[in-house]
Amino acid sequence: MNDGRPIPSIHVYYSSLIEDTSIFNQLLYGIEEEGIPFNLQGKEEASAIKLSYLAAQNSTLDVGVGVGEAGEVILHYTKLNKDKPLFQIHLKEDVKKLRNLGANGARLVKGLPFKELEAVDVEYIGVQEKISKEEVALIVSQVLNVIKKMNS
Asked: CA 79: distance to chain centroid?
């Protein structure tokens, strides 16, 4: 509370059936890194879609995240249809995806472009590595700049 008024924040609601909330710390770190406060609450609901939609409805920033009993993590925006959330991943996925999902909630509030949640498989010189679509775009941009300089 701030002078009796709630602090504008992203609401993160999780199923109270989840006993260890540390399993989604990366999600919270992603929000925190972008400088937006969050409000974490356990709710007697198992469905991530219901939790995320309720969280968005209750947030003064219109952004909510729900973590369901089965491990689904959903980012929702209050102006979207309840059944059509912005992003959905699972807790078992890469921690970077979880962190980026949290960051994307904050970026939605700030009006910034979203971070990628999916990596692209790239194979070069016999080595296979996962890089994000953002990294691929950066590489393409740098190659185009080199080609422009060569043609000048």
From this structure: 17
CA-based nearest residue to 102, from 48, 9, 25, 28? 28
DSSP 2-50: BTTBPPP-EEEEEETT---GGGGHHHHHHHHHTT--EEEEEES---HHH
- For residue range 7-43, list pLDDT tens digits in order: 999 999 999 999 999 999 999 999 999 999 999 999 9
- Which is it for the CA torsion 97, 67, 42, 104, positive or negative? positive
Contact 59, 11 (CB under 8 A): yes
Q: Could you tell me which of 128, 99, 129 has the C-alpha nearest to residue 116? A: 99
What pLDDT, on a 0 to 100 scale, did the predictor assign at position 139? 66
Q: pLDDT band at 86, cuts 50/70/90?
A: very high
pTM above 0.85, yes or no: no
One-letter amino acid at 80 equals L
Which DSSP category does 69 fall into?
T
Please give the backbone phi and psi of residue 75, each rounded to the nearest 5 degrees, phi first: -100, 125
CB 15 within 8 A of CB 26: no
